[in-house]
Design a protein that fits this description.
140 residues; alpha+beta; Lipocalin; single chain
């Protein structure tokens, strides 16, 4: 009986383990629970090159609040000149490999973030910005 329970436990872990490239390998918290947070830009890599200073300047005080009610809010100051704010809805793709952000503004420009790492206090995503793949490291 103990062998069967142990085997079942191992199967559950294998099927519920995180599938993201950079982890975590295992989490007891759901993907949605880990995504819901207010995230701040920590680092940015444009096609593998560290462009953190450039992005922190262009997206000054960048933050995205991903909320439990499936809404989101992005705020920053482009080049520290004026305030920018975007709101809308978010959802995971069917296989939960990306987070899709649909702006409330009525445009059909869904922003898709490929998830590389999804931890409770840190997430890494890849987003297409101006035709380039940009890896964003976000922290809470």
């Amino acid at each position: 009986m103990i062998k069967y329970i142990g085997g079942l436990f191992i199967l559950i872990i294998c099927f519920t383990a995180c599938k993201y490239e950079d982890g975590p390998k295992f989490s007891l918290r759901s993907k949605a629970h880990r995504a819901i947070n207010t995230w701040y830009l920590d680092q940015a890599f444009e096609e593998g090159t560290n462009k953190t200073d450039d992005y922190k300047n262009a997206y000054f005080n960048y933050q995205i609040a991903i909320k439990k009610d499936k809404s989101y809010e992005i705020k920053y100051r482009p080049f520290n000149v004026f305030d920018y704010k975007e709101t809308g809805t978010w959802d995971f793709s069917g296989d939960k490999s990306t987070i899709n952000f649909t702006p409330q503004s009525g445009s059909n420009n869904v922003s898709k973030w490929k998830i590389l790492r999804l931890k409770e206090t840190e997430t890494w995503v890849v987003q297409a910005i101006n035709g380039k793949d940009v890896e964003l490291h976000l922290k809470d």
